[in-house]
Amino acid sequence: MRKVKIGIIGCGVISNTYTWLDIQACADLDRDKAVSTAKKYGIPKGCSTEELLNDPEIEIVINLTIPAAHTEVNKQILMAGKHLYCEKPFALSLQEAEEVISLAKSKGLMIGAAPETFLGAGLQTCRKVIDDGWIGTPISATANMISYGIETWHTSPEFFYKKGAGPMLDMGPYYITALVSLLGPIKRTACFANIGRKTRKIYSKPLRGKTISVEVPTTYTGIMEFENGVNANINMSFDIWMSNLPKLEIYGTEGTLILPDPNYFGGKIKIFRKERVLDALKLYGGEDKPQIDICEDIQEIP
Ligand SMILES: NC(=O)c1ccc[n+]([C@@H]2O[C@H](COP(=O)([O-])OP(=O)(O)OC[C@H]3O[C@@H](n4cnc5c(N)ncnc54)[C@H](O)[C@@H]3O)[C@@H](O)[C@H]2O)c1
């Protein structure tokens, strides 16, 4: 079988999760970073974007640059005649996304984009749970990514607070892709967003102590109406120190589905069936509802 040769553009934090692939070359704006990444992972060539795109052996290029550069780099990749895979967010606007898609079509090239976690065992098990009617007909859902920010762990967290990022564009794709894959297309949305803190102090190394000036909203409160009539709310925040909100839940006529974190391929799934409440009510005559744990794990997925 012929192995397709792959190139990576962007040698930052996430690039190491792609190095198990047959990478022919890696490139970065910072050439030294490209060279050191190549050396670290045994990649044959660390070079500039131009050199990588001129390599005739490379057929697929993975775009791991910062969001603000995605569209420009995506277009460069396609113009060089390479198939494209892009980290999320695929584009910063619908118009940009459509431009990239129509360029790929005109060149007869394929494109793919993160996230693909909805294809993992966790969310695919949820797909089967819903299809098999465990929670009946879905009525509503909630999606919540609540965190206090990226500057506590990322080596270059500034871009998360600049155009193209913020919690909705950065983490929203995992949650919304999961919901769309499970519930179908969204008909309409509404959202409010605000900036929790205008500046953020970096806690992680090597930029510890530096201040980030925040340019995009850091807390989003939204609602979505799906074409099948399901309503969902969504909260995405880099401003909240602690919360008990669940990551992802779908509520149906027969029960509740508590989904795993859609940022990962596996995770724990819980189902809460209406019988657990109704049987208890029957047993106790419906007067004194007992304090019982009516939530059961169905599966732990590695
Ligand atoms: N870090 C994570 O945990 C994570 C997880 C999933 C997805 N992602 C996504 O992956 C992408 C990269 O994230 P990261 O955390 O690796 O960022 P990073 O800042 O660590 O790395 C980005 C790299 O891209 C390079 N770069 C920027 N513009 C470029 C350009 N025009 N041409 C060539 N190189 C360029 C930078 O020099 C840098 O080395 C983002 O879209 C992010 O949303 C990150």
UniProtKB/TrEMBL annotation:
Domain GFO/IDH/MocA-like oxidoreductase: 124-257
Keywords (A to Z) from UniProt: Oxidoreductase
Domain of life: Bacteria
InterPro entries: Gfo/Idh/MocA-like_OxRdtase_N, Gfo/Idh/MocA_oxidrdct_glycsds, GFO_IDH_MocA-like_dom, NAD(P)-bd_dom_sf
Pfam families: GFO_IDH_MocA, GFO_IDH_MocA_C3
Residue span, Gfo/Idh/MocA-like oxidoreductase N-terminal domain: 5-111
Molecular function as annotated in GO: nucleotide binding; oxidoreductase activity
Name of the protein described by the UniProt record: Dehydrogenase
Species, as recorded: Herbinix hemicellulosilytica
UniProt lineage: Bacteria, Bacillati, Bacillota, Clostridia, Lachnospirales
